[in-house]
Amino acid sequence: MMKTLSRLESQKAMQEWIANYPNLPKIDDEYIKIRNEIQAFNRKVREEYPENMPKRDYYIDVHIGILLYDFLWRQPKFNMRVAANDDFWRFLSIKVAPDVVAERWGKDNESHYWSKAVRIWFRSIWWYVHLSWQGDMQNTAKVLEAPCFTTDSILNLEERTGRKGTFINVYRYIMYYYSHISKATLDEFNRKSGRQQDDLFRVIMKLNTAKVMIIDPALYLGGEKEYVRSLFLDAGVRV
User: Fold this and answer.
1) pTM
2) Which range among 18-32, 110-124, 190-204 shows the weakest confidence by mean pLDDT?
3) Which residues pair with 165 in a beta bridge?
């Protein structure tokens, strides 16, 4: 099992990080290697996306997320049980690579380090990639780089877990189909609804949250793929 930090431990560790900034916390050699890897691909991604590019924060989130996703799956102690443990993400954020979090959110933004689980940055971008996964890094990146997605999409995808849990394949089909909707179709939807571009995504996620209460997507005629297509049709968009 990988190391963890409880909420109480995280609060204390966060105070120590801020007090000693920019010095990094002392950790075992095993985690020094993990720190070095995360720092390395953070530098790589930031070099690829210059300061003046549009939606830079989103692209940094996506590409660090993809590299983090791939890297953690190659660690022998990492598994879905660890990924579902918020205390693991707190340890990674405050003890292992707080400097990487700080570069994105500042050194003292507690919600992105530990205090609000859904906003812990490493957790958030890892799960965004997991819920969007298209079989390999290249195809996943292609979907997530679609211009229809923004930083808001990350929260909208992750905060819509229903009372019956998360149907992973449904989320992945939603991301795939949404990424292929043309700008003209989105513009037409926005014109008719008077909403912002990202709102169609919220509409789809809300429809799914409501629909899974009465329908098991796997039992839908045609399976999960057709179930997702029906969500878009319900919103007035054919995919």
Assistant:
1) 0.94
2) 190-204
3) 162
